[in-house]
Design the sequence.
């Protein structure tokens, strides 16, 4: 009888151990699947981006983190007012920024009307202020689009001595977007290196998730 009881206890212990191993394997499997889904969602749909400079203040501060919709631009174009993450043209990330149209941009009365042909591997974040066909000029950091000044309560106004006046009008090429930082006196943007084609846009920033006190939609 004692042997039978010991055998039953051993079988019960083995069953319990097997159940615990099965539960552990299930948990590990769930974690692996969740991590794989998170990876593919970030790869294909949503990407995170850390704000590297003050060019988008006061809307976005240095170190703030945003979520970027990577798939939306495949089904439609960004609109005026959207904040987008993108690759700038080559030369935009080197001082002074390079314009693809000689004589425009830095030191000129005309904003840059054409980017350099190649794109940079860097990523920038700016706001769309003009789309293909729009006629653009800049006065005291304010965008004059098709003869009307933008409604821009989100900007940080230009300070004295900032390069914020480009009164001569340019036309944004079809399929391109004119981008500017909200910190109008401290942003290297399309004023200096030109509009960018849609294929260089990574996606639209739609929410901020860090720091916690700044969580919200853009």
Sequence:
């Amino acid at each position: 009888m004692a042997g039978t009881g010991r055998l039953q206890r051993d079988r019960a212990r083995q069953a319990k151990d097997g159940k615990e191993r099965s539960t552990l394997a299930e948990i590990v499997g769930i974690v692996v699947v969740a991590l794989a889904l998170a990876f593919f969602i970030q790869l294909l749909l949503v990407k995170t981006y850390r704000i590297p400079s003050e060019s988008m203040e006061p809307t976005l501060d240095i170190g703030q983190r945003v979520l970027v919709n990577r798939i939306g631009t495949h089904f439609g174009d960004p609109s005026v007012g959207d904040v987008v993450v993108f690759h700038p043209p080559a030369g935009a990330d080197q001082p002074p920024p390079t314009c693809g149209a000689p004589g425009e941009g830095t030191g000129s009365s005309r904003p840059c009307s054409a980017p350099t042909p190649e794109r940079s591997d860097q990523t920038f974040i700016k706001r769309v202020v003009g789309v293909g066909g729009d006629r653009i000029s800049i006065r005291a950091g304010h965008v004059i689009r098709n003869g009307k000044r933008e409604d821009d309560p989100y900007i940080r106004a230009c300070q004295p001595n900032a390069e914020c006046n480009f009164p001569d009008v340019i036309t944004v090429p079809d399929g391109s977007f004119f981008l500017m930082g909200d910190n109008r006196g401290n942003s290297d943007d399309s004023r200096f290196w030109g509009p960018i084609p849609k294929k260089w846009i990574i996606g639209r920033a739609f929410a901020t998730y860090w720091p916690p006190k700044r969580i919200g939609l853009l």
Q: What stands out?
A: The mean pLDDT is 87. The two ends are 74 Å apart (CA to CA). Residues 21 and 157 are 63 Å apart (CA to CA). The chain is about 20% helix and 25% strand.
